[in-house]
Amino acid sequence: MPSLPKIYQKSRWDFLSLEKNGTLQIEGLSVQDIAKKYGTPVYVLAERSIRERFRDFKKSFPYPKLRVQYATKCNSNLEIMRIANEEGIELDASSVGEIILALLADFAPLEITFTNPNKSEQDVIFAARLGIQAITADSFEDLQLIESAGKKLRKKIRIFCRITPLIETGDYSTRRLQFGVPYAQYKRAMDMAMKSKHLELIGLHFHGPYIYNPRIYFHAAKKLFSVAEYLLREYNHKIRFIDLGGSFPIAHGEIQDVFHPRDMGRAFTNFFIKQAYKINLPLPYMVFEPGKFFVANAGVGLTKVISKKRANRINTLIVDGSTYAFLPDPLVYHCLYDILPATRMNIRRTCHYQIAGCTCDNIDIITRNAYLPTIETGDLLAVMDCGAYSNTMASNFNSLKRAPMVMVNQHGVPRLIRRRDRYSDMFAPELDVLKVADPQELKRYYDLWRVSLEKLWGGKKKKNGIQKAKSAPTFLNQKINN
Ligand SMILES: Cc1ncc(COP(=O)(O)O)c(C=O)c1O
C-alpha cells in the first residue's frame, strides 16, 4: 500500500495510506468506498488507534493500583464504551444519561464514577441505589445534597470530594476554574464529610483544564496528598482513591508537540508512592480519567465539497459538514483541524482555501486557511483528529441531521456504530407535545403536507392562511382524535 506523501505523514495517523490513484485509505479502506456506503458527512474511527491508546496509557504508569476511567462525555458512543470495557478501562460519567449508557455498554456499577457540578436528588438516589464506585461532590451544596439523599436511603453513599488548588505554571492557571471545593476551604469540606452519617469519603479528586505541562499533575497530587494527610491526622481516615482527572493533551491542528503520558508516567508514579509513604498512607488507587487522549486522534471527519467560490481574492470551498452539526471545535474552542485532500493526495498543493460549513451562518467556517491542491466540487476532504467532542457537542442547528459514525477495524472492515439522525429523532420533543409523533414512521412524514394543520394547532389560524388538508393520513387522524 503506498504511504502518504511526506508532508502529510504523522505518526498518530499510522492508519492512513493511499490507493494507487492517490485516494486516502483508512486501514486500507478507501474513503470513497466509505462515503459511498454511508454518505457524507461521516465520522470514521480507527479502532486499532483507540485500543492502542487505552493500552499505552495503562503502560505509561507502572503503578500497582492504577485505575483508568474513560471520560464518556468526549465521545459517548456505545461501541467505544464497549471497547473501553474490553480493554479493562472504567468509566467517568458526567450525568445519569452517561451512567445509563455505561450500563448499556456492560460496565458494572462499581466501575462507574459520577462527576459533575449539578446533580438532582433523583440523580444521586439513582446512582447510589445502583451502587456505583463513587459520586464526586463538587461543592458544599453537593455534599449536603448527597448527605440528604443518603439519609433518605438510610445508607452511606460513597463519595470523592473534588478539590481545586490554585495552580499557576507558565500560562496555565486554575484561578478561574469554577469546579470543586476551593483548596483554602478543604478542611471545612473534609470535616463535613467525616462528621456525616451518610457520606463515606473514599477519594479526593482534581481535574484541571487542558494540561500542556506534566508538572501540573505533580502539583495537584501534592495538594491532594496534603488533604489526605489532614484526614489521617484529624480522623485517622485513610483515603483510598486519588483521582487526577483527565486533560492530557493531544496533537491537532497547529499544536503538534505535546507530551505523552509515558513521558511523565514513571517519575509521577515514584512521586505518588513517595507522597503516600511520607504521610504513612497505605498506597491509594491512582485514578486518571482522560477522554480526548483516547479517541481524538483516531477520528477522521469525511466531508464532501459541494461548491467553490472565488471573491475578493479569497477561494472558498463549501462542504456538506458544518461547525454546528459535525465539527464544532472551531466554533467552541477556536481550534482548527488538519485537513487532507482525501481524493487528491498525490497532487501538489498550490491553493489556499477558506473552508465553510453548510449552514446559513457566516461564522460557520471550518478553517480560514487550508493549503491544498486545486480542489473540485465532489472531492472529499478528511478533517483529522476529530474523534472527541465532535459528535457529542454537535447540534441540529438548521435542523440538520448529525452525521453517522463508522468504526474501521485493523483489517479495513467498517461497521456502522451510530446512524445518521432522523427527522423523527429531531422533531420528537415537539411532535410528542402535539401528539403526532409516531416512532416508526419517518416516511409517513412525506404526507405531512396533507395534514389538517387546523386540527393540529387546535384551530389557531396562521397569518397567511393554512394549507387545508384534502385528507389527513390515517395515522395522524387517529393520533389527533385520541
Ligand atoms: C471531570 C472530568 N474528567 C475528565 C474529563 C476529560 O477531559 P479530557 O477529554 O480533556 O481528557 C473532563 C472533561 O471535561 C472532566 O470534566
> How many strand elements?
23
The 3D shape can be described as globular
Parts with pLDDT < 50 across at least 5 consecutive residues: 465-482
Distance between the termini: 62 Å
Please state the CA-atom Rg, rounded to the nearest Å: 26 Å
- Give the biggest sheet: 9 strands, mixed
CATH architecture of the largest domain: Alpha-Beta Barrel
Query: What is the number of independent domains?
Result: 3
* Structural category: alpha/beta
Helix content: 25-40%
**Roughly what is the average pLDDT, rounded to an integer?**
92
Summarize the structure in words.
The strands form four sheets. Strands 4, 16, 17, 18, 19, 20, 21, 22 and 23 form a nine-stranded mixed β-sheet that branches. Strands 5-6-7-8-9-13-14-15 form an eight-stranded parallel β-barrel, surrounded by six helices. A three-stranded antiparallel β-sheet has the order 1-2-3. The chain contains 14 helices and 23 strands. Residues 465-482 have low confidence and may be disordered. The protein has helices at 31-38, 47-60, 78-86, 96-104, 121-130, 140-153, 186-195, 215-235, 261-278, 292-295, 329-332, 423-433, 453-456, 474-481, and strands spanning 16-18, 24-26, 29-30, 42-46, 66-71, 90-93, 112-115, 134-137, 157-164, 168-169, 172-173, 181-182, 199-205, 241-243, 285-288, 299-311, 314-319, 339-340, 351-356, 365-372, 380-384, 405-408, 414-418. The chain has three domains: 6-45 and 296-418, Lyase, Ornithine Decarboxylase, Chain A, domain 1; 108-290, Alanine racemase (TIM Barrel, Alpha-Beta Barrel); 424-481, no CATH class. The structure holds pyridoxal-5'-phosphate.
